[in-house]
Each structure stands twice: as structure tokens, then as C-alpha cells.
Amino acid sequence: MRTEQLEYIAAVTRLGSLRRAAEELRLSQPALSETVRNLERELGVDLLERKRSGATMSASGRELLPHIIGVLDAVDRLRSAAGERHRISRMVRVGTVNAATVPLLLPVVREFRATHPVTQVEVVGAQQTDIHRTLLEGGFDLGLVNHLEGDDVPAEFESTELLRGRPVVCMRPDSPLASAPSVSVDDLLDVPLIGMRSGYVMHRYVHRLLDGRGLSFAYSTDGAEMGKLMVAEGLGATVLPDFSVIGDPLERRGTLIHRPISGDTTRVLLMLQRRRAESVPQAARDLHEVFVRTARALSATPEAP
To answer: Are 122 and 15 a contacting pair, CB within 8 Å?
Structure first.
């Protein structure tokens, strides 16, 4: 068994495709596939499930993944101790629902890179169900997801609450909704509404808030970032957690403002999740700590009036 065989398996698991892993590793796909099959024969188990849509970890592979990660992490520590830091280039993958990309994620990545200059951080936007699936398969190291307070938290993940906020209506300063200190449900029905697509927590929240009262989204989009850009271009208003708006560059420049929803006491939680495993890569543990520390600092910062 060779270390590079384990690195190849980790790459295929992370990228979900033999082709993409071969491109990243600068190998031919047949050579990569043969290397993986040699390791499977040596271990006596099928590590991957090969489908037309890609390659994912098999059940046996998921059981062995913590051990594979542990070996690779130990090799990284050995290389580091030997002064070969230039060879340690492990990637950390973060799946995010894009609810806090600018105010939280970018400061975290900036701080992490300052102390891990050769570790690549890959940020992948996805819906919550896809993030959970990929965490379980080993393709993501960490996941940023939204929960409405009271939602069940999946037991198969270690979950840490990063931010706690409330839904707000995000609008331009010249919006007819901007003149009042809060926005009522009736007010929302009078403006073009930009909704998140089905599968997002805020899609479910808005439907629950309006309770069938003639809701018809003028636009529907994937994620908060595109929603905010559409608002900034004057296409309408959208409902987001306040922590995805406060501190956003568009909000800091005065292009966007937000208002609370009258009479609503809902709380939205931004959760950082990772797969329960005996062995977690050191870089993923370090990034987890930066997320928690940065979120605490954000929570302690008072909102500007």
C-alpha cells in the first residue's frame, strides 16, 4: 500500500468523479482507476460505487474513510516536522447554502489562509440536502446550513450554532417598504417578491409566513447572494436571515437596507456541521475553530442603527 493510493481515494471521494480527480492529480483516468482498483484488491473491499453520474464512497469505503484521513493527516504532520511544508497542500471543502457567504465566510477564509498558506479552501454552493449527503460521503469537510429554531438537527453530524438571527425583508432604500420601521405580511403581497427555490429553508419559511395568502414569487433564485443582487437591481424584495444582510458590501454601501417582519418571532440559526468521525483532518479542525471564533466576534458586534 502506498500513500498516493490513499490520496487518490480521498480526491475521488472529495470530487465525486474519477475524471475530475484525474484532472486535479494530473493523471490519466485509466491510470487513476487502475490504482484505485489495486488498492481495493489489496484491502479486499470495494471502496467506490461507480455510476454514470460519478463515483461515490461505498458503505465499506465510508467505514474506512476516517482511517484513510488519519493516515494522510499523520503523513502531513511527518512532512511538516521534516520541514517539507511546501509538499503539504491538502484541500478543505466547505459546502454552504450561501446564507452568510460575505459577512462570515470571507473573513474566515482570509484568516485561515494566513496560517495555512498552502492549504486550498474550496467553497461549494449547494442546497441543504446536498450538503448533508456530501458530508456523509466524505466529499465535504464542513457544511454551513440554515435551520429554523425548533428544526430537528440530524444526529449523524456534529453541529455547532454559529449565528442566531431573525428573518428580515431586504430591499432598496427607495422601495415603498422602506418608509416604515417594519414590514407586515400584507405589505409583502404588494411588491414583487424574490424567493429562494424549493429546498431552501427561507423558501419554507416564507410559505409558512404567508400561509397560502396568494403568494406568487415574481422571481426565484438559488441562494442569498443572487437574491441580494436582484434586489439591488430593483427587481423586488426578498426575505433573508439578518446575518446574511448585515455587513454585506451592498448593505455597507447603502444599496440595500432591511426591515424586520411585524409580529414575527421566528429565529434562524446558521449551523456549522461535520460528519461524526474518529479522525478529522487537522486543516478541517483548524478551519472549524476559525469559523467558531469569527462567528462569536460577529455576534458580539452591535448592529449599526
So the answer is: no
The three three-digit cell numbers of residue 267, written as one number = 429565529
Lowest mean pLDDT among 92-106, 108-122, 172-186: 92-106
| CA 254 distance to own-chain centroid | 27
Cell of 205: 419559511
234 with 191: CB under 8 angstroms? no
pLDDT in tens, 153-168: 888 899 999 999 999 9
Cell 482498483: give the residue. 37
Indicate left, alpha or beta for 255 from its phi (over 0: left) and psi (-120 to 50: alpha): alpha
Give the cell for residue 115. Answer: 496560517
Instruction: Please state whether 21 falls in left (phi above 0), alpha (psi between -120 and 50) or beta.
Output: alpha
Beta strands (DSSP E) in the chain are: 48-51, 54-57, 91-96, 120-125, 142-148, 157-165, 167-171, 193-196, 219-221, 237-241, 257-260, 268-275
Is pLDDT above 50 for 190? yes
Name the DSSP letter for residue 48: E
- Can you read off the three cell numbers belonging to residue 122? 474550496
Bridge partners (DSSP) listed for residue 239:
169
Predicted model pTM: 0.70
Alpha carbon 196 to its chain's center: 16
- 190-201 in b/e form (b: 16+ CB < 10 A) is ebebbbbeeebb
Three cell numbers written together for 62: 465510508
Distance, in Å, from the CA atom of 251 to the CA atom of 156, rounded to the nearest integer, reads: 36
